[in-house]
Amino acid sequence: MSSRLVTIHQFSYQHEIIGLIPLLESHNINFHFADLETVTIDPLLSQAIGGIRLQVNSNQVNEAREIVDEFLINKAEAELESEIILNNEFYYKTDEEKCKTCNSEDKVYIKQKSFLSKLFGNKQHNYYCKKCANTWKGK
Description:
- The protein is α+β, with helices and mostly antiparallel strands.
- It folds into 2 domains: 77 residues, Alpha-Beta Plaits (2-Layer Sandwich); 55 residues, no CATH class.
- The strands form 2 sheets. A 5-stranded antiparallel β-sheet has the order 4-5-6-7-8. It has a 3-stranded antiparallel β-sheet with strand order 1-3-2.
- A hairpin with a 5-residue loop joins β7 and β8.
- The protein is elongated, with a radius of gyration of 21 Å.
- The relative contact order is 0.13.
């Protein structure tokens, strides 16, 4: 008995599926990413063709949907933890520096440099510790 492929999710770009592939493989889900090659070659076509469509065997739809849903939730949570806005300035998480006050490593963020500071060679970074709210200038 053969099963047909069912589209269960659409992705806009190739980088969105990278972490999902090993998850599906580890659960023995038979899957196919329709139009992956097209979007990889020309990402601007993604909107026009409906993106990269994750297709699975019809008898594995429920299991695959659970895996995709969990993957998307974990991805969203990780993205929320990787950046913050403080006093209308954008900071992103870094592992380069420890907090000077509480010695935390996992809650330190570095200020995103503006185009002009990059252009004129401002090498000094501003850091922020989310754990104790300490700010300091670094390298």
